[in-house]
Give the backbone structure.
Amino acid sequence: MSSKRRDRQILELLALHGELSVGEACREFSISPATARRAFARMAAEGMAEKTWGGLSRRSGFHESEMVPSRLREALNAEAKERIAREAALLVKDRDVVAIDGGTTTLRLAPYLANRAVRIVTNSILIAHRIEQLRSDVNGAEVFLTGGFVYPGSGLLVGPQAVANLRQYHSQWAFLSVGGLDPGGATNTNQLVVESERAIIENAENVVILADSSKWGQRDMIRQCSWSEIGRIITDRGPVGWKPPVPAGKLVMARPSLQDDRGRAKLK
C-alpha cells in the first residue's frame, strides 16, 4: 500500500474514532512501529492530525460543523468519492450546462467533464483550475467562474457577488456536495456556502446530491435543501435504519469500476 493511500485510511479512522495508537496502526496496515511513527510525525507536521503520546489524534478543536480545509477532506473516503463522481458524469450529455458547487466529491467530476462539449458554471476555483489543467481539446468544457469572496481553506467563491452571478445561469444539472443528510434533507456547514448552493438549486432542472456514506445521519448547522428539492442522490452505500424519501430509482449506488471488479476477483 502506498503511503498516500495509507494516510487517507488513517484519516478515515481518526474521523470515526478520534485517535489511533501506533500498535493499532501496525495491526491495521501490517507495518512496523517505526513506519507508523514516521507516518504519524509527517501527518502531524502537515497539520492533518495531532501527535499524542504513543499515537495520533484528530485535530483539537475539531467540530463536525466546521469547514475542514479542502486538502484534508479530499483524503477521506477517496475511493467512494471517485466512484460517485464517475457515476454522476454519466448523466451529462453534450451541450448540457452543468452547475457544480465546491466539494471534494464534486472536484472529482473534473477529469470526466474536462474534455466534453459542455458548459460548466461553478463558484469553485479548485474545480475551474482542475478542468483547465485537464482539458486537452479546444472543444472541451467551457468554464464560467463566479466572482466573490474566497472562503479560507476551501477555494470557494461566496458572498453577494457569487450569489448574483450564479442566479444568471440556468443549468440542466446541478451537482452539489453536502455536509450531512438527515430525515429533513441536506445540511451544510456555512451560511455563505449554502446561499451559493441555494442559488444553484433555484436555477437547475435536475438537482443531484453527491454524498459518500459517511454523510448519512449527519446534521450540520445550516439547512441546505429539503428532500422535495432533491432529484437524485448518488452514494456508495445507503443509510442504515431509515429510508430517505426520494422517488423510486433516484437513490443511486455508484457502481465499482471494471478495475475494482478485477481487483476483487483476484482477492477471491
In short: The first helix runs from residue 3 to 17. Residues 227 and 254 are 20 Å apart (CA to CA). The chain has two domains: 3-62, 71-259.
